[in-house]
Amino acid sequence: MFVLLVLLSASCGGGSNSSNPPPEPVQYVYQTPSAIGDGWQVGSLSEVGINQAMVETTINRILQNQIKYRYIDALLIARNGKLVFEKRFRTQFDFTDNWAGNRDVNLHVLNSVTKSYASTLVGIAIDKGYLPSVDLNVHDYYWDKQPIANWTAEKASITLDNWLTMQSGYLWDEWTIPYLDARNVHEQMINSPDPTKFLLDRPMVSVPGTTFAYSTGVSYMLGDIVRRASGQSIAAFMEQNLFQPLQIQTYDAWMTEGQIHMGAALYLSIRDMAKLGQLFLDDGVWNGQQIVSSAWVAKATEQRVTEPNFGYGYQWWMTTFTANGRAYQSYYADGFGGQHIFVLPELNAVIAFNGSAYTDEQREQRSVRQILEQDLIPAMLAAP
């Protein structure tokens, strides 16, 4: 662990007695989040115009383990700059904690939500002059890995922008084979003798900047290029320039090549995870301090890739949610298992989830889109 400076079900023993019906389940009653000195201003649902009864109904559906509301480990809502709802459902560790040896149940693996942190570190490195721009040629930072296999004119032209938008041109498919399968190309990379060279040596299949190919390996390299440019470890750079200003005191992570894997490795509390969403909603400012430039926030959340079912910027996704007959634009961070930071600028809101749906069967039993479109966004539109 790095430090800077479920619901328990009750069951009756013995056989059942049909003459004594089971007790009514305890109904959730809303509580305002605690002020714990972590930088969040706290408030109530009603004072920011969110219908409390509707949110309570959502939480009861989660607690009752209803279909589409399963495998949710935590939920947080912030609106108008205030943390107004926080509920953690997870009470015990799971297999993902073993990856980092995490022993704090409040910390949750972020998986690919980590990518949005990697993008932010790149933006800070550019703001501070460690990196010149997104137009730099990435291979200028990897002379120690020469000769690079499958060298072509296209590979020589790969820029940082191409890495940020997942349009590197490499032969890379990590979606066909499940992530927990050793045959997955990302698993092959992190288990190789030299993961960095594994990525750089990949064959090219398209001109950089033309084809989207999701790559956790490329996101790992975003952290690595910041490390090389700044002369600091990823942990030191991130703590000094992002976590300390955001008042994030405790986190965990797993390592590749002795450094934090910025494609998937971070573990944070949901309160700390959601701070990134609030930082971006407020144009790079947290509690009056400009942490990353507003210009970078605008670049990172601009849709640069358009696919049939999603848009993509600099390690942020784009989508539209429809509630009460109206569409609301959102950019968001998304992680394997159900880790999400949704930013909804039109509603001045951030909604964060942790989850544990790692198989297809589990994912079918949870719908974050349904919860947003039928529950939480309508609660923001309804009279208190």
From TrEMBL:
<dbReference type="Pfam" id="PF00144">
    <property type="entry name" value="Beta-lactamase"/>
</dbReference>
<feature type="domain" description="Beta-lactamase-related">
    <location>
        <begin position="74"/>
        <end position="355"/>
    </location>
</feature>
<protein>
    <submittedName>
        <fullName>CubicO group peptidase (Beta-lactamase class C family)</fullName>
    </submittedName>
</protein>
<dbReference type="InterPro" id="IPR001466">
    <property type="entry name" value="Beta-lactam-related"/>
</dbReference>
<dbReference type="InterPro" id="IPR012338">
    <property type="entry name" value="Beta-lactam/transpept-like"/>
</dbReference>
<dbReference type="InterPro" id="IPR050789">
    <property type="entry name" value="Diverse_Enzym_Activities"/>
</dbReference>
